[in-house]
Automatic annotation (TrEMBL), chain A:
Region (Disordered): 97-120
Source organism: Salinomyces thailandicus
GO cellular component: cytoplasm
Biased composition regions of type Polar residues, renumbered to the chain: 97-108
Alphabetized Pfam families for the sequence: Sedlin_N
Annotated InterPro entries: Longin-like_dom_sf, Sedlin
Superkingdom: Eukaryota
UniProt cross-references to Gene3D superfamilies, sorted A to Z: 3.30.450.70
Record GO biological process: endoplasmic reticulum to Golgi vesicle-mediated transport
Protein name: Trafficking protein particle complex subunit 2
UniProtKB/TrEMBL annotation, chain B:
Quaternary structure and partners: Part of the multisubunit TRAPP (transport protein particle) complex.
InterPro entries the record matches: NO_sig/Golgi_transp_ligand-bd, TRAPP-I_su5, TRAPP_component
Keywords, alphabetical: Endoplasmic reticulum, ER-Golgi transport, Golgi apparatus, Transport
GO cellular component, one term: TRAPPII protein complex
Principal localisation: endoplasmic reticulum
Similarity comment: Belongs to the TRAPP small subunits family. BET3 subfamily.
Function: Plays a key role in the late stages of endoplasmic reticulum to Golgi traffic.
The keyword Protein transport appears for this protein: no
Protein's name in the database: Trafficking protein particle complex subunit
Localization per Swiss-Prot or TrEMBL: Endoplasmic reticulum; Golgi apparatus, cis-Golgi network
TrEMBL record, chain C:
GO cellular component terms, A-Z: endoplasmic reticulum; Golgi apparatus; TRAPP complex
Family: Belongs to the TRAPP small subunits family. BET3 subfamily.
Name listed for the protein in its UniProt record: Trafficking protein particle complex subunit BET3
Organism listed in the record: Salinomyces thailandicus
Main location: endoplasmic reticulum
InterPro entries, sorted: Bet3, NO_sig/Golgi_transp_ligand-bd, TRAPP_component
Length: 181, 233, 211
């Protein structure tokens, strides 16, 4: 199961992104996205920003839960007070995601793997993206990232919408991911 | 490092480069920013500090000295009163953005984003003022003549203590700095303003330093607020 | 060790802090100072560049601003701490600065260390007299991380205004000192430390203003 996490600024500009996988249930913590997922993930996340804008004026909470899905990816969003979006894309089985319709010659491999992993992945969070446990886990994860984010923005040298480059911030996000996802 | 040529003509190789597949010119790998800050090995970094610990206090005099320094600095660089006020406004702006996130983070489980204009105004009047100055602002009013103008009144702005304005600049109100903070908060919360300014409130004998902060919201913000009201109500 | 002076100074500092000082949230001070430094870093750039900060010029400007503050701050200090009396030697000066001065204005008490020079009571016996102030917590630099441009950490002393303040304040009480930072946690060092060196006592009444 793989995740792609991104922070998008107020002008829809990316400030931070991170790929990782689950460490639970024996996962290795690395993401297993297909190579084409690299740009597709960003595309999916940015497309979901429209959904964020629709939802944000009806919902007062900071955590907006699952706002969008694409094939078997689901996207959860956390909106900070200053309109900066934390977007988490989760995918229970990246190999089973047919991004484009013309998958060149590898159609035979996904089904057997999917069958073998079905029981395994059913217990993973991403298989039930709307379940309360999932939402709760993601919400707590987002809360920790928010804490690190606020600390980063309090720096007088950090200007709004600047890319976050601190390696400590990155390791904090990774640690939170390992703990909750 | 191979560079993508501007006229990306197929099959033409840039001189001096050797590709097996002449149809594609690979882009250079993105140069990732290499962070190079040193951190103390034993001391903690900013990410270890606790955001929610009870905020410590410091002396008002220290703030006044630093604020005075800022005013003097900007005064030396500009001429007119309105230019100084604009500079102070710009100086306070990023502080507003930081305060908004900090205050909402500190509300932790009960944090809600202001969605309606009134919620935002109450947030500024209450939470923001308390976070900055330890007390709520004194009044919140809506202009009777223009529906996109609101006023927040402070009888004795903390930032103006220890500041005496020379007579030739009597129009200058250094609370323009606080106006900048307010503007930062509004813009960051997606309630764009056309400007937030600080004015002396004339004629109040009990509070000679009374200041009115005038918030002018953009048309589209008012329209959006009306639309939400219509859809909910 | 001047323990009697130390505890008297500590008690005085605490008492003044509790009763005679108007207070404000420390975050406002941190954010305001941060704005000042960030503004200077934007305005003071290297010659012929528009975006590369001249950190050495920023240091100098912060020191100059601190000096102007110090000239006025000393009066405030003397007014509030009327019981101090005259400090008889430089050691007492150090104690009063750290336990009363810093406490009154920043609500922190730096540690006085690293004495160098003639022992107490023998002022003017030749050789520089100097001490270090070690700041365990620096309220001016909370949540600050220097810009990651390869130069800031080597060139900028973020809290340099404090050096200017000490220099200006002590000059008004007839002491010419040099104050400079020797280490800063923002630069990756283990502690934040300022070195204060007495250059000479000013015997003549020099005019106070510095323009």
């Amino acid at each position: 199961m793989s995740y792609h996490f991104a922070i998008v600024g107020t002008r829809d500009n990316p400030l931070f992104d991170l790929d990782f996988g689950t460490s639970k249930l024996g996962g290795d913590g690395l993401s297993h996205f297909k190579p084409e997922a690299a740009h597709m993930n960003q595309f999916i996340l940015h497309a979901s920003l429209d959904m964020v804008e629709e939802v944000q004026w009806a919902n007062k909470d900071l955590y907006l839960k699952k706002i969008d899905s694409y094939q078997n990816n689901s996207i959860h969003c956390f909106l900070t007070a200053t309109n900066v979006k934390f977007l988490l894309l989760m995918n229970p089985d990246p190999s089973a995601t047919p991004y484009s319709q013309h998958t060149p010659g590898t159609t035979t491999s996904p089904p057997p793997r999917a069958a073998a992993n079905a029981k395994h992945s059913a217990t993973l969070l991403a298989a039930n993206p709307s379940s309360p446990q999932t939402e709760e886990a993601v919400r707590v994860f987002m809360g920790e990232v928010y804490e690190s984010y606020v600390k980063c923005t309090l720096n007088p040298f950090y200007r709004a919408n600047q890319i976050i480059t601190s390696p400590i911030f990155r390791s904090r996000v990774q640690a939170a991911a390992k703990k909750y996802l | 490092m191979p560079a993508a040529t501007d006229d990306n003509t197929y099959g033409v190789q840039p001189p001096g480069l050797d590709f097996k597949d002449s149809n594609t010119i690979p882009l250079p790998p993105p140069k990732h920013f290499q962070p190079s800050l040193r951190y103390p090995s034993s001391r903690k970094t900013i990410y270890d500090r606790n955001l929610s610990r009870p905020s410590s206090t410091t002396s008002l005099a220290s703030f006044a000295y630093i604020f005075n320094t800022i005013i003097t600095y900007h005064h030396a660089k500009s001429g007119s009163v309105s230019e100084i006020e604009t500079r102070l406004n710009r100086a306070g702006y990023p502080i507003g953005i930081k305060m908004l996130d900090l205050l909402l983070y500190r509300q932790s489980g009960k944090a809600v984003r202001p969605i309606r204009l009134l919620e935002l105004l109450q947030f500024i009047h209450g939470a923001l003022w308390r976070g900055l100055f330890g007390r709520a602002a004194d009044a919140l009013e809506q202009s009777t003549s223009k529906k996109n103008e609101y006023m927040i009144v402070d009888n004795e702005p903390v930032v103006n203590t220890y500041i005496s304005i020379p007579r030739e600049m009597s129009q200058l109100n250094c609370a323009a700095f606080v106006a900048g903070i307010i503007e930062g908060v509004c813009d960051a919360a997606a309630f764009g303003t056309e400007g937030v300014t600080a004015h002396w409130a004339e004629g109040d004998e009990m509070w000679p330093g009374k200041t009115i902060f005038l918030l002018k919201f953009q048309e589209k913000v008012i329209e959006r607020d009306e639309a939400i009201k219509a859809s909910v109500g | 060790m001047a323990t009697a002076t130390t505890s008297k100074a500590s008690r005085m500092g605490e008492e003044i802090w509790k009763t005679r000082v108007d207070k404000i949230s420390a975050e406002v001070l941190t954010l305001t100072y941060g704005t000042l430094v960030a503004q200077l870093c934007r305005d003071l750039t290297l010659p012929n560049t528009a975006s590369q900060t001249d950190y050495l010029a920023v240091n100098a400007e912060l020191d100059r601003m601190g000096y102007a503050i110090g000239l006025r701050l000393i009066e405030d200090f003397l007014a509030k701490s009327q019981n101090t009396g005259h400090c008889s030697n430089f050691r007492e000066v150090a104690e009063v600065i750290s336990k009363v001065g810093f406490k009154m204005f920043l609500n922190v008490v730096p540690e006085v260390r690293g004495w160098q020079g003639p022992p107490a009571g023998e002022e003017g016996a030749g050789g520089p007299v100097a001490f270090s102030l070690v700041l365990e917590e620096n309220p001016l630099a909370e949540f600050v991380e220097l810009p990651d441009d390869g130069r800031a950490q080597d060139e900028l002393w973020y809290s340099n205004v404090l050096c200017g303040v000490l220099r200006g304040a002590l000059e008004m009480v007839q002491m010419q000192v040099e104050a400079r930072f020797t280490s800063d946690v923002l630069r990756g060092h283990e502690s934040t430390e300022m070195r204060v060196t007495l250059v000479r006592y000013l015997q003549d009444e020099l005019p106070a203003d510095d323009d």
